[in-house]
Amino acid sequence: MSARPTAPPADAGPTPPPDRRRAALLAACAVALLGLLAVAALAPLPFSVTHPGLTADVLGEHAGEPVITITGAPVRDPEGELRMTTITATSPDATVRLGDVVSGYFAGDRAVMPREAVYPVGENTEEIQEHNSAQMRESQHAAVTAALSHLDLDPSEVSVELRLADVGGPSAGLLFSLGIVDLLEGDGRGGDLTGGLTVAGTGTIDPDGRVGAVGGVPLKTQAARRDGATVFLVPRDECGDATADVPDGLRLLPVTTLGGAVEDLRALAAGEPVPSC
Fold first, then answer.
1. Is residue 7 very low, low, confident or very high in pLDDT (cuts 50, 70, 90)?
2. Which pLDDT score, from 0 to 100, does residue 160 have?
3. Residue 6 predicted with pLDDT over 50
4. What does the pLDDT look like over 152-162, one tens digit per residue?
5. Residue 8 pLDDT
6. DSSP-assigned letters across all residues of 163-205
7. What is the value of pTM for the model shown?
8. How far apart are CA 42 and CA 84, in angstroms?
9. Are 217 and 245 in contact (CB under 8 A)?
10. Other CB atoms within 10 A of residue 226 CB
11. Which of 70, 80, 151, 156 gets the highest tally of CB atoms within 10 A of its CB?
12. Is the pLDDT assigned to residue 231 strictly greater than 50?
């Protein structure tokens, strides 16, 4: 039995050369990549953009009210300033896109941080504000306790009220305590604890006077220098962050306890050697 002849294959046209196929594949990949970049550029990202915030002299007034009010003991009239510092961040429900992240990465006056690092608690602005207010109240109580304990004063005889409108969180604790010490005792020799300088800083404090880290230190040093500070008190554990981009003319003074900060400020005012980051 003879084999049946097979039909010739249909003409599929000429095969493209390898270089042309490669170019077409690259073009298709480029189109897909551009599409992904377009989506990424428009999609909201889980970041917050932060800036140097306000500073407030705890020895003076803020929003028309004294920050520290003391009754039951004589109060000094200091000449220097003790400025607590803050950062300002985009709200938790703000839309942050790829362009904001990229520009923030290269900018010196702002930083991009994961949203959960800025707002670790709360699903909306109201919950976060409530949490920050609670932290501020706890911080104020600890600051008063630490300061009066440092001065060996009885809290049943000396009353301290702290007010700082529109500021939340625990990071002003150290400065509150130092402000109370300066108003009641100064440097212990009749002068200001600040030596008449504008001193700024940040740091949490517990009732035993231990200073804790807070975050956002590079932006806070910028805010401090902007508002005239020449000395910045920084939790020792954050010296590395602080020295990474410290503004010209700002001296960093590392602290671990309220007592240590008081002694270092006294030494600084007297022209004696003090530690630095």
1. very low
2. 98
3. no
4. 999 999 999 99
5. 47
6. --TT--SSTTHHHHHHHHHHHHTTTSSSS-TTTTSEEEE--EE
7. 0.81
8. 37
9. no
10. 14
11. 80
12. yes
Provide the token pair at 46: 């889980």
Token pair in block for residue 66? 């004294």
Find where tokens 């039995």 sit. Answer: 1
Q: Which residue has the tokens 């700082």?
A: 164
Whole-number Å distance between alpha carbons of 137 and 26? 60
48 or 17, higher pLDDT: 48
Tokens 């938790």 belong to 92
pLDDT in tens, 49-108: 889 999 999 999 999 999 999 999 999 999 999 999 999 888 777 777 777 777 766 677
d(CA 84, CA 201) in angstroms, rounded, equals 6
pLDDT at 196 over 60: yes
- Name which of 179, 172, 185, 86 is nearest 137 in CA terms: 172
Share of the chain residues as helix, strand and coil, in percent rounded to the nearest 5: 40, 20, 40
Assess contact for 266 and 187: CB atoms under 8 A: yes
Question: Which amino acid is it at 246?
Answer: V
- Spatial CA neighbour of 90 closest among 53, 119, 50, 54: 50
